[in-house]
Amino acid sequence: MTIDHESVPRPGRTLTGPGRRATRPDGRPGTGLLDRPKSRPKSRPKPRAAAPRASYGAGRHRSRLPSRVALPLSLATADAFAVALAAAATTPADARPVSTAALLLPALLPLNLAGGLYRSRLSLSALDELPALAARAAVATAFAITADACLAGRWTDLGPVSPLRLLTLLLLVLPLAALGRTLVHHLTRRSRRRRPSPVLILGAGELGQRIAAVLTARPEYGLRPVGYLDPDPVLLPPGDPLPVLGGREVLGRVLRRYRIHHVLATAGAADEAETLAALRHAARLGCQVWLVPGAREFDSVQGAGDHLWGFPCLRLGAPAMRRGGWIVKRGFDILSAGLGLLLVSPLLAACALAVRWDTGPDVLFRQQRTGLDGRVFTVLKFRTLRPSSEHESATRWNIAQDHRMGAIGKFLRKTSLDELPQLWNVLRGDMSLVGPRPERPYFVMRFGQAYPEYADRHRVPVGLTGLAQVNGLRGDTSIEDRARFDNRYIEGWSLWGDAKILLRTVALVVRPDGS
Question: What are 102-110's contacts with CB under 8 Å, separation 24+?
Answer without folding.
Answer: 103/143, 103/144, 103/147, 103/148, 103/155, 103/158, 104/140, 104/141, 104/143, 104/144, 105/80, 105/140, 107/139, 107/140, 107/143, 107/144, 108/79, 108/83, 108/136, 108/137, 108/140, 109/76, 109/79, 109/80
